[in-house]
């Protein structure tokens, strides 16, 4: 077929003659293996692997990769075995083909589970050899290029998976051309009407733009010549998906987005990049806050360029990228620009080391994620490029996703640092662990040897790595205490339905465990703690012989002993302490959260109380709890010292303090450590003796 000859001709420009012979042999072998098979378009099936190999040949990939591309479907779709491929074409090719082969045809409970398992296998194979994902991406790209033959519903499903997973993987690996084409095709088939409207609008506007782009190109070229810079300057149109996303995210009209032009300047070396930047800033005024130096601080995928947005003629914003030829090669082809895996000294290059570290991080995530939806959630978060650059105390740069917190940073350093972190200093100042990080922040994590992850962290961490490690800890280290509390929660729910927990038979338990998709009763109890199962719902699914249980028993509360550890949280909005009437709220991913009964942050609408649990404090609780108080005092010298002294006399400790001054008054908010409500009352009585204090009350955070 002509396409195969094109492949052999194109690859002969950089491969050895013996490599071309191997490709021809692989093509002949593939033709025989796929004989009688056709694509939905009616073409012989072999046309697909040839097209995949041609896509990869444009990246100048090596002969084993192209050979595996020609054979990537023979194990899945024919009777050819991995051993036969290994015998004919070598172990390296066989491993690549096996890595790319899709998951064996087994029955999954949901489409999401099948998708998650497919990506698990792909990532594990990627961690062994990144060429696997290059073939997989080329495979997806050709499938997207020929998606018209599918039914519209199938087109949308494949296109959205492409936008959510495959395009970000291509971007993360720096494969710019593949990334942009996957995005354009994904947009076209996900939103066909919107795509067609934008196509017509860009065609209509193209004539008007051509003259403006030409004038800007000429002005930039002349300005760079003044500095004796030999530069290649090109103007480019924004891609449709980029236009669409700007319209959606910034609520702009089409004409507003279209006024932003893109120009690329390629120079010989790094000093020339900065000279060119200075010349262009003297030609057009830079827009404040729109400059990024990715040369000094490269992106995760090793992308380097200077980015600046300038105010061009007629007040038009124009985007400028300045880079060297080597940077441009990496920007276009990413990890594939170094397809030779080791240099002459046998060392991995920096880009491959970064890629390997990222893949290993994903593998760690998938190994500790047992739930398919949880794994896909982690994968989608970690695939998108990091937007925040922060520094360790030693000056090392870490790149994290936008919205990352100090806890995310701690886990990015090491899982042990994350598990044991208790405090953080940001730019030398103490800050809450939930603080969202900004580019340029210098982060110092404070750890304690006996500290443990807090379930509340799940409410604000942004990275899959942090979320995965926290969940893994909750599921394993605190397993026993979670099982006990989960059992108490279920027993209370059963009693509320007039069902004696002891009357549940082994057959009923077996059926419930099987229907719930868990492995044991103990796992079901821990899922209730993590908020994945509601005790009331589980109780309803259990049917037991009705027994006579007194009505007063139906209101028997779950006893809180204060020793449950991470199985429960005490809400910071109201700081419940022994002696307070309390209620438990089951919160997804955070588990059981205890509030004061009258807390303003819980719903008292009966319709919303299915996940409320009746709780009571146990007797002889021997530990301290956080309690909040608010004090307004005369702003006099030494008042804080006197307040602190009275708190100490009352045998209480200060955990946190916030102060504000207002004219003659000082407002102080304390988090104190007390044993119970009676102890807190003693502290407040002691403070009322101070003449400077005008008001004192209990409060939340």
From TrEMBL:
Molecular function via GO: GTP diphosphokinase activity; guanosine-3',5'-bis(diphosphate) 3'-diphosphatase activity
InterPro entries (alphabetical): ACT-like_dom_sf, ACT_dom, Beta-grasp_dom_sf, HD/PDEase_dom, HD_domain, NT_sf, RelA/Spo_fam, RelA_SpoT
Domain TGS stretches: 384-447
Domain HD stretches: 45-144
PROSITE patterns in the record: ACT, HD, TGS
Alphabetized UniProt keyword annotations: Hydrolase
UniProt-listed Gene3D superfamilies: 3.10.20.30, 3.30.70.260, Beta Polymerase, domain 2, Hypothetical protein af1432
Entry annotated with the keyword Hydrolase: yes
Domain ACT residue range list: 628-701
Domain of life per record: Bacteria
Listed Pfam families: ACT_4, HD_4, RelA_SpoT, TGS
SUPFAM superfamilies for the chain: ACT-like, HD-domain/PDEase-like, Nucleotidyltransferase, TGS-like
GO biological process: guanosine tetraphosphate metabolic process; nucleobase-containing small molecule interconversion; response to starvation
A GO CC term attached to the entry: plasma membrane
UniProt cross-references to SMART domains, sorted A to Z: HDc, RelA_SpoT
Family: Belongs to the relA/spoT family.
Function: In eubacteria ppGpp (guanosine 3'-diphosphate 5'-diphosphate) is a mediator of the stringent response that coordinates a variety of cellular activities in response to changes in nutritional abundance.
Protein name: Guanosine-3',5'-bis(Diphosphate) 3'-pyrophosphohydrolase
Protein's organism: Nitrosomonas supralitoralis
């Amino acid at each position: 077929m002509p396409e195969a000859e094109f492949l052999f001709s194109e690859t002969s420009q950089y491969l050895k003659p013996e490599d071309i012979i191997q490709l021809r042999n692989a093509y002949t072998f593939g033709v025989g293996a796929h004989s009688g098979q056709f694509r939905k378009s009616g073409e012989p099936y072999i046309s697909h692997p040839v097209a995949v190999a041609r896509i990869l040949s444009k990246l100048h990939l090596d002969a084993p990769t192209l050979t595996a591309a020609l054979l990537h479907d023979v194990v899945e779709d024919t009777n050819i075995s991995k051993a036969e491929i290994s015998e004919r074409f070598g172990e390296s090719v066989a491993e690549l083909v096996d890595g790319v082969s899709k998951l064996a045809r087994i029955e999954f409970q949901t489409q999401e589970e099948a998708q998650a398992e497919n990506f698990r296998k792909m990532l594990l194979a990627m961690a062994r050899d990144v060429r696997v994902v290059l073939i997989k991406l080329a495979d997806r790209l050709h499938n997207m290029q020929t998606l018209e033959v599918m039914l519209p519903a199938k087109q949308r499903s494949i296109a959205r998976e492409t936008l959510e997973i495959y395009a970000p993987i291509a971007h993360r690996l720096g494969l710019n051309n593949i990334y942009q084409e996957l995005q354009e095709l994904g947009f076209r088939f996900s939103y066909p009407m919107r795509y067609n409207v934008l196509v017509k609008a860009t065609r209509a506007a193209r004539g008007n733009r051509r003259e403006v782009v030409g004038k800007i190109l000429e002005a930039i070229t002349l300005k760079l010549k003044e500095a004796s810079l030999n530069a290649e300057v090109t103007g480019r149109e924004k891609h449709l998906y980029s236009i669409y996303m700007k319209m959606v995210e910034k609520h702009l009209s089409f004409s507003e987005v279209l006024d932003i032009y893109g120009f690329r300047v390629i120079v010989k070396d790094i000093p020339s990049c900065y000279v060119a930047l200075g010349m262009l800033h003297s030609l057009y005024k830079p827009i404040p806050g729109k400059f990024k130096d990715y040369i000094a601080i490269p992106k995760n995928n090793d992308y380097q360029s200077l980015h600046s947005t300038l105010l061009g003629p007629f007040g038009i914003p124009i985007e400028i990228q300045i880079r060297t030829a080597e940077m441009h090669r990496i920007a276009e082809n990413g990890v594939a620009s170094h397809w030779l895996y080791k240099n002459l000294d046998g060392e991995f290059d920096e880009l491959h080391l970064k890629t390997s570290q990222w893949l290993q991080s994903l593998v760690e995530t998938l190994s500790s994620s047992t739930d398919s939806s949880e794994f896909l959630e982690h994968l989608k978060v970690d695939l998108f490029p990091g937007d925040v650059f922060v520094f360790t105390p030693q000056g090392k740069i870490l790149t994290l996703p936008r919205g990352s917190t100090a806890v995310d940073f701690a886990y990015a350093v090491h899982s042990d640092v994350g598990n044991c972190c208790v405090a953080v200093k940001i730019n030398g100042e103490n800050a809450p662990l939930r603080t969202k990080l900004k580019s340029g922040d210098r982060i110092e994590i404070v750890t304690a040897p006996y500290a443990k992850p807090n379930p509340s962290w799940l409410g604000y961490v942004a990275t899959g790595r942090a979320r995965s490690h926290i969940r893994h800890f909750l599921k394993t280290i605190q397993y026993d205490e979670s099982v006990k509390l989960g059992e108490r929660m279920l027993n209370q729910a059963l009693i509320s339905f007039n069902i004696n927990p002891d009357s549940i038979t082994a057959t009923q338990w077996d059926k419930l465990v099987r229907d719930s998709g868990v492995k044991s009763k103990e796992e079901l109890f821990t899922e209730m703690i993590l908020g994945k199962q509601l005790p009331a719902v589980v109780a309803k699914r259990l049917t037991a012989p009705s027994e006579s249980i007194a009505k007063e028993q139906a209101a028997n509360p779950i006893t809180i002993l204060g020793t449950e550890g991470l199985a429960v949280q005490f809400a910071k909005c109201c700081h419940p302490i022994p002696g307070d009437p309390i209620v438990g709220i089951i919160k997804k991913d955070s588990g059981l959260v205890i509030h004061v009964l009258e807390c303003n942050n819980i719903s008292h609408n009966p319709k919303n109380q299915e996940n409320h649990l009746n709780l009571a404090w146990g007797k002889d609780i021997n530990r301290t709890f956080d309690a909040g108080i608010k004090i307004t005092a005369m702003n006099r010298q030494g008042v804080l010292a006197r307040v602190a002294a009275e708190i100490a006399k009352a045998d209480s400790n200060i955990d946190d303090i916030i102060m504000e001054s207002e004219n003659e008054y000082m407002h102080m908010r304390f988090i104190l450590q007390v044993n119970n409500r009676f102890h807190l009352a003693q502290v407040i009585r002691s403070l009322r003796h101070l003449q400077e204090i005008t008001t004192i009350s209990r409060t939340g955070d």
